[in-house]
UniProtKB/TrEMBL annotation, chains A, B:
Family annotation (InterPro entries): Diverse_substr_monoxygenases, Luciferase-like_dom, Luciferase-like_sf, NTA_MOA
Extent of the signal sequence: none
PANTHER family linked: ALKANESULFONATE MONOOXYGENASE-RELATED, C2H2 FINGER DOMAIN TRANSCRIPTION FACTOR (EUROFUNG)-RELATED
Keyword match Flavoprotein: yes
Family the UniProt entry places it in: Belongs to the NtaA/SnaA/DszA monooxygenase family.
One Gene Ontology molecular-function label: alkanesulfonate monooxygenase activity
Lineage, top ranks: Bacteria, Pseudomonadati, Pseudomonadota, Alphaproteobacteria, Hyphomicrobiales
EC numbers on record: 1.14.14.5
Source organism of the structure: Mycoplana azooxidifex
Pfam family name, one: Bac_luciferase
Protein name: Alkanesulfonate monooxygenase
Length: 441, 441
């Protein structure tokens, strides 16, 4: 079995799940946002299942939502990614640790240092999810009244990336001699002062930390806009994306992989890992029932707004327990409306259930038995829809246990997933090479 | 024995010691700046010895020094404090974890979040060493050509403290209901939006993390200037300082404690813990010989500049192996010159040895047997020179083992130090009360 044909699996984590009703699901831990012990148990299970990475979602603000939604949301509090992943680094051995850090609201010297330090502490398991932070509420927590404009955010992100990677390359790998006899700790000839001056950033350097064990922590990118795709093609080694189905996944995969040649990169130097919400049951019907039960825990008052947005039409006057009434098509909302209608028909959902789906989690989902989900994942890999997935667990711990203890063994049986880690670093797991130092041989 | 009369002990750490020659000392770990395993072993030993806290020193730049000194310096690389202390939180149970964070080169939302997260991860063991960062090389790593002026740094620090503590108070302690049945996760009436607009900072809030277990992580301050002392009296719960002897320590102690009443604070609400370099031997002579051996590992070329600075006189032309020649007194350097002359006479040091002392570690030192060092520490406590010490280990691991396994048992035998932790949090260890939430009862 060619290792390149195997899936890569990340766990896209919030402590209680991304699904807003998850903290109410039977067996869930409503205190997981406060409990490192819970997070440690999740990381250990994911490592036992040989996941590539634990990927920590993040926001730089309490999300702006109506009070009825906000007071029902477990997302108002969570751990900060660097502190959480560093703590997890100390109690795990092999799993990768991907932290989100914003190029809009942080400083490259801080970001370079924290990732380098995490990479040293974890012996080469760090990854940086580069985000430009599109949430306008975040801007107001960092001294700005209005959000930074999209184009400017991406220009800064590109330069920020150059500065951070340049700082990581401050020392050659062989700079540290540490010869106690002669007293020479390192060779200053093997130290580079970056002295960067650009349109957005001015950073002298050098970094006051040795080059990370991985050379650079793995670069992860999540943007799907045009500048986001281009930034990914130029800089990313993992793309985290959200195509709604295999057809959209194949188009995105072909587009991003197609951009690599133009910037002189090999197709394998970038892995595309869509988010996938995975619900497992003993039967397909049981899995669907579990999902409906989970969705039913989303409060209708906070969910109906999400449906209205998806439809491009105010749904608040509809009968919640009836099927979706006919809705006039407008130019604004063609795609969204078509998706809702398709979902309503396929799953025969009421207005309430549709609202709860959009208020809970409405992205790509694999809902079925270990067999049907393994079939779907295999099809994505085979048909070049992705190189694996960032799994979103519907509820924790049960949803994670279902994947780690039931789905993963089936994927391993089929030769679609590793049975053990072959290497030590996150780059090893992902089959990514160690970047050359741009300043030193 | 009244608990209030016991010493508090912090460990002021850099991975290889603050002393620049320490990485060359017999048995030292020259790789400690790269090895989490070493740091973990230090933290576990300090916790077994019941230390109050592990205190991580920090710099935001490679220090500017002549190449001959730089290439011999182990300080060019180190761990970043948040990542290191979070990792240590996961492998320890009780010891406090104090991180340095700069108010000049960071954002209050980030700082508030990281400390709150560390406090949650460690179950109430975080402390914030507030620094304004006086190193001009740091400014150049954060987009500035010149360093921020002293007064402006302190004005920003004061406002920064108000914002960070205000963000920590975003949620009342009882805000999180987490009632799965009703679906109410928290009570928005128990959430405060800070909406701070001041001369230096504009931060909306709320913080997206629950109030820290300690209410606020313990506030540590290190400045000894006039604005530094005033900031400490207004905000600090621990003062980290460097008086050169007991007489200077008593004056500083009386000054800072004396300022507390004017701001409505009790004397016990602030602990003064000077840095103390502790070298233990079986005899006083052995301890002194160890220190001379350690100093001898500092390279003369890089040490002589430090002696010139201390003297206020160029010492580079002196015979290194002769006693200090007579030096004319100038107005600029009265105190420094007097100190060097006193040291030269007391310990009968050559120019080389004096240079190596100033190039290594020239602050307050207790050098002797466990008995003589315990006597000195007891005198400081008795005579109100301090409430304990931040111990600087001359070399690691031996210097730490000497304190943890030999000095601490003697202090415990005398009733001067705890034999076990009485509480769980760093506030418990230090005898500090939990701050009230300024927005909620």
């Amino acid at each position: 079995m060619n290792a390149a044909r195997q899936l890569h699996l990340g766990a896209f984590m919030r402590p209680v799940s991304l699904h807003t009703g998850a903290w109410r699901y039977p067996g869930a831990y409503p205190d997981a946002n406060f409990s490192f012990a819970r997070l440690k148990s999740f990381a250990l299970k994911l490592e036992a299942a040989k996941f590539d990475a634990f990927f920590m979602a993040d926001h730089l603000a309490v999300l702006n939502m109506p009070i009825e939604a906000l007071r029902r949301s477990h997302t108002v509090t969570s751990f900060e990614p660097f502190t959480l992943l560093s703590a997890l680094a100390a109690v795990t051995e092999r799993i990768g640790l991907v932290a989100t850090a914003s190029t809009t609201f942080d400083q490259p010297y801080h970001v370079a240092r924290r990732f380098a330090s995490l990479d040293h502490i974890s012996a080469g398991r760090a990854g940086w999810n580069i985000v430009t932070t599109s949430n306008p509420d975040a801007a107001r927590n960092f001294g700005l009244d209005e959000h930074v404009e999209h184009g400017e955010r991406y220009a800064r992100a590109r330069e920020f990336f150059d500065v951070v990677t340049g700082l990581w390359d401050s020392f050659a790998d062989d700079a540290f001699i540490r010869d106690a006899e002669s007293g020479i700790f390192f060779d200053p000839e093997r130290l580079h002062v970056l002295d960067h001056t650009g349109p957005e950033l001015k950073v002298r350097g050098p970094l006051n930390i040795a080059r990370p064990p991985q050379g650079w922590p793995v670069i992860v990118q999540a943007g799907q806009s045009e500048p986001g795709r281009q930034l990914a093609a130029e800089t990313a080694e993992v793309v985290f994306c959200s195509p709604r189905d295999l057809s959209a996944g194949k188009a995105l995969y072909a587009d991003i992989k197609g951009r690599l040649a133009a910037v002189g990169r090999a197709p394998d130097s970038l892995k595309i890992l869509p988010a996938a919400f995975v619900v497992i049951g003993d039967t397909v019907e049981e899995a669907r029932a579990r999902r409906l039960r989970l969705d039913s825990l989303v409060h209708y008052d906070s969910a109906i707004a999400s449906l209205s947005i998806a439809l491009g039409h105010d749904a608040s006057g509809f009968d919640p327990d009836a099927p979706l009434p006919p809705i006039p098509e407008t130019n604004d909302s063609k795609t969204g409306r078509a998706q809702v209608l398709k979902l309503a028909e396929e799953e025969r959902l009421t207005v309430r259930q549709l609202a709860q789906r959009y208020g809970g989690y409405a992205g790509l989902a694999f809902v079925g038995t270990v067999d049907t989900v393994a079939d779907e994942m295999a099809a994505w890999l085979e048909e070049k829809g992705s190189d694996g997935f960032n799994v979103v667990f519907p509820y924790l711990p049960q949803g994670l246990d279902d994947v780690a203890e039931r789905l993963v063994p089936e994927l391993q049986r089929r030769g679609l997933f590793r049975t053990d880690y072959a290497g030590q670093t996150l780059r090893d797991h992902l089959g990514l090479s160690r970047p050359k130092n741009r300043f030193f041989e």
